[in-house]
Predict the 3D structure of the following.
Amino acid sequence: MSSETRRTFCRICEPACGLLATVEDGQLTALAPDREHPITRGYACHKGLFALDVHRDPDRLDHPQRRVGRDYERVDWDTALSGIAAQLRSLIARHGPRAVAGYLGNPGEYNSLLSEAWYGFFGQIGTDRLFNVNTQDCGNKFAGADAVYGSVTIHPIPDFDHTDFVLLIGENPQVSQMSFCSLPDPVGVLKGVAARGGRVVFVNPRRIESVDAVGELVQIRPDTDVYLLAAMLCEIERGPGFDAATVARHGRHVEALRDFVRQYPPETVAAVTGLDAATIINLARDFAAAPRAAVHMSTGVNMGRQGTLGYWLVQVLSFVTGNLDREGGNVLSVGYYERRARAGRNARGEVEFVDTAWGLVRKPQLPVFPYPGNLLADFIADAAEPIRALVVCAGNPVLAMGGEARLRALLPDLELLVVIDLYRNATGEYAHYLLPATDAFEREDINGLGVGLQHRPNIQYTAAVVAPRAERRHERWILNRLAQAMGLVSELDDPATSNPWGKVGHMLRSRGHSFEELREREVIDFGPHRFGRFYEEFLQTADGKVDCCPAVFAPALARMRALFDELAAEPPGQLKLISKREAKMMNSWLANVPRLRTKTNQTNYLYMHPQDAAARGLADGTRVSVRNAHGELEIPLRLAPDLMPGVVAMPHGWGHGQTSGMRVAQRTAGANCNRLLPTGPGSFEPLSGQAHMTGVPVEVCAAGAK
């Protein structure tokens, strides 16, 4: 038996931790942390290591399949692709290219050769009806960066190595690492901040696991972070004041910012946020007084109703306190492409909106600004111009966003549904064709998602660890073969006829390296951050200033006031639902891994503060009904004193009861919390298309009660 160890890296979340793969007789048999990796240095969480189980899962799609009645039959690739191509050509001839739509899910972000092929395929078809995970995850950050810095790719991250005070809003790195900040072993890094005397402060509606490891907690009501940030800025402005030199030299619309934050003093927002005014005042003054302070926000704010405004206020908090582009503050991580900020520039400097049957939505600017996922069902049901064919890749919209019941009712009406994935997931149960994709260990790749977001800028290349099993194929191959079958391209895109890494090679040359060098070295470390370059070299606004109060935000600021009044008028005892991250789940990626379905992880629960449970006559273990205007579900209850009273939490990634293609997930189905989310018009933030997914009002009672 031959055995060898190959270097690779994880593709489950942003840090891309280094792994060592053991290959025996051509089969992947083990994964372990890469202790010699110059960046991750032996850190890898169990989620990345359990990717081995996904690779070997007997429920994986291994062959193309075609629906026959309620069942599927195995077909060869030529039959599948020619059949799909014929149906797409016919649909386009009869109804035009906009009858075809696509949805790209979260795993696609960790596949460096997929995005260009995906958007290139639909560009050749001529449709703009594209949806992706951004509107359930982070689209607000692109909108905020575009407005404040002039580029969707500018996202300054904390300089953890030197900061004296770090404020983390809406994230839980102990369970889910960090988002928009690629940081291996984040809790270890935060412990390092505390060990040298720095403060680590989390803002969250529950006492998250991270606080048990390091730092302190400011417990806030869901979906109110934007008011806390405005109040902090108000307190800094009326107290110690903004950093005069910084705002005078590098800011514009500073007076408009001052006028805005004065509307939200700590005394005004205290009741809505659930914080006392003194807590807000002290937090603001401590941040402003710290010699070096950094701030970061994550999905707990993104998924609220005002994520773009939250991200804007995070940026100006760093800027007006003089902490932007300062050692120990927030810094732009340059990564392997020096000109990335310029590449993401909004050349027009304007935001365009499209007038749809469901109101104004941001004009698609792919891949960062697709159509809102919350309108997918509406587009399918559109009486004037319905979606008739949908291609879903690396995604599961039936469970991943609101409106499960409506999507389940509408998907059978599609003339063609094609699913490209590892599994026949909940969405795949409705597919006409299922096409098996390779996993992370069956393809070459780079850690491209982290560029511009890495705590330690680097790039890593991995060859395919093993050959694809059975008939699994890279999504790029599938899309190009499909384009060829449709007559859209004349020859197959493969290594013999193209260079898929040409663009990466061009980017590397901006840093004095080549792709050939990367292949040989596998990892290139670009060294520590460099400060003092941001305003002159990377800021992309037309006048070279940080826009402290962008004009495009005017409607959102009026909406912010209306939502404040709505929150202030809520009845006492109103429960708000938040999504809870779990250590044994990664969205729905790991739902079919038996080793993660332990005795204590056979289902998900609704978590509730004992005070709220007692008021409703509920006990631990009671089966409860959770309902609102959008849906209803039943789930067992768990008492959780770590929650703020008035807040209930439910882990997402569950709800696989009808997913027969994933037998472990179906057996341990749990409930899909996204059934309780709003969809359609008014259910997303207009600036970014971001879905409202947290802080959603619900009612809870014993199951069977009316």
In short: Residues 571-702 form a domain with the Barwin-like endoglucanases fold (CATH 2.40.40.20).
